Amino acid sequence: MNATEPRRRWWPRSVRARAALAAASAAAVILVGTGWWVHHDVYRQSAQIAERQAQTHLLALVDQLKEGSVPVRRSTVPYEVVATGRRAAVAYGGGMEEFDPGTRHVLPAPPKAEVPAPPDDGAAWGYTNCPLDIPARHDAKPWDRFGKDGGTYLGMYDDVRADKLSSDKVAALGIAPDAQLRVYVVVLPHAAEEIAESITKTTDVLLLRAGLVGLVLIAAIAYFTVRIALRPVEAIRVLTASVTANDPRERVTVPATGHEITALATTINTTLQRLDNAAAQQRRFVADAAHELRSPLTTLLASLEVALAYPERTDWPAAATTAARQTRRLQALAEDLLLLARLDTRAPTADPETVDLTALASRLTEQYPLTERPLALTCDSTAPAHVHGNPDECERLLRNLIDNAARHAAHRIQVTIRNQDAWVVLTVHDDGPGVPTEDAERIFERFVRLDDARSRDHGGTGLGLAIARDLAHRHRGTLTLTPRTLGACFRLRLPRAQAQAQAPVEK
């Protein structure tokens, strides 16, 4: 067999066939268990039937003796009637003749009757169960009921007093007037087995036929039921297979039944929508990144080509300055793009450190370079504010907010930090032109710039606020724009951490 050839398995691959086979197997186990229970219960009931037959025969024999009649030998149940003071049996039959009890009784004789007789209390008729030892015989025939070795059998007996009978009945029975009669009835095991076999044979055949028909019906019903139930799944599969990268807008039909397949279709549509949104965002991101890269590259290429075309008239220090500025823009944009790519694919820090935002913000405001134009950058805090996170990512978040405020502030930037219950709230407020209310969320999108007041001439790649919000979400926090009458105010909320004894590490 070839190693690359898939191994053939007896278990079918089709869900319909698997469901039908599983249902048929379960039904087979149930039917086999039921048949076994019925079979054994029939044997138990057959033994009870044999005992009731023996009891009925015993009652009939006692009634015949009380009437002075000697029972006939022909009987379906072995019996023997013995009497005190008599060597031979009074009557026998049903197979007891095999022992020739006409000369000597086989079963023990009863004791002498009590004199005087106990009073008759009128109690209901009863009998006594006892084991009966049947003697072995050397001349047993194959058809004899008791066989060659004899054995011990279940028996029952009842006594009849001769003094309770009339003299004519006593004479007809051939016993002494003071004798006591004992009627034995033997319950043969094979009698119960014969009854059980006759019943179980018919029952087993009926159960086998009904079981086979039932298994076929159960398997067919399970097969077609699963087939009907899986029709929506097949439709979902066909529609899902038609979704391509060029046309990801296809959606599956949601059944109105409200069962599990409805939840499956809803989940698939939600997943397809997320994939569509992610693909659209990726295409938009690639287009925006290409556009942003094209602008400094075009400026850089144009200045270099002009300088090379007219080297004698070129201001080389100015050309070098322009090239360096555009190169720095390209470097900043490349770093931001790489950071966004890492944020999109990297999971949050599994073992975060404790960062003091108060100390971090104070250090950034003290060391922040304000060389282009004079700005007042202050930090207002009343106590340490500890959060869990990555120190480098927290510093990048705050630096992006301060960079954004520095590009658009007129004279002043205010950083405020407060502890509010389980949160640390940091705000960065500038006195610039502000942001329109309708653009409060749009500014957090990648490569978004609004108007001339926030133009590319003042620096920035259009990714700072998008990176800041992603970092806030990675630290289980939020970053929003708070409405203000003057300027723009960004509000950062991060879960508060318990303060630790060690001081934050200075960078």
Q: How would you describe what is shown here?
A:
This protein has helices spanning 15-66, 167-173, 189-229, 231-241, 260-309, 316-345, 357-367, 391-408, 464-474, and strands at residues 79-83, 91-93, 128-134, 151-161, 180-187, 353-356, 376-381, 386-389, 412-420, 423-430, 478-482, 489-495. Residues 452-457 and 501-507 have low confidence and may be disordered. It is an alpha+beta fold and 507 residues long. The strands form three sheets. A five-stranded antiparallel beta sheet has the order 2-1-5-4-3. The two termini are 66 Å apart. The protein is built from nine helices and twelve strands. 46% of the residues lie in helices and 15% in strands. α1 packs antiparallel against α3, α5 packs antiparallel against α6 and α8 (391-408) packs antiparallel against α9 (464-474). It is rod-shaped, with a radius of gyration of 53 Å.
What key attributes describe this structure?
507 residues; 5-stranded mixed β-sheet; Heat Shock Protein 90; Helix Hairpins; 12 strands; transmembrane helix; disordered C terminus; alpha+beta; 15% strand; 5-stranded antiparallel β-sheet; 9 helices; transferase; phosphorelay sensor kinase activity
